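Support reply, case 0932

Customer input (verbatim):
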Amino acid sequence: MSGFFRWVRSTSEHYLMIDAQDKVAKRLGTPRPSAPRGAAIFWRRVYVPMFYVLPAALRDRIIASMPGSHRNQWPVEPELKGPAV
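Our regenerated output:
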């Protein structure tokens, strides 16, 4: 199932980035990149607006509950012994 969660994560990041590009282009008054077609309608019209409506604490809990690289723990550094040189 981790392949599914990886796909959801990368797809959501992609469409959130497109939305951010649209907002910056609108603010600067420049033409935006061409809009994607097809399945992008769900991501652009449903997912992205819902993402921004959800409280940040709820978004963080949802993201933390999904398996992925953000759940990996850093290895414990070995204790230093003796002089550095």
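We compared this against your earlier run and they match. Two observations from our side: Residues 2-64 form one domain. The helical segments are 2-28, 40-53, 56-65. Please reopen the case if you see a mismatch on your end.
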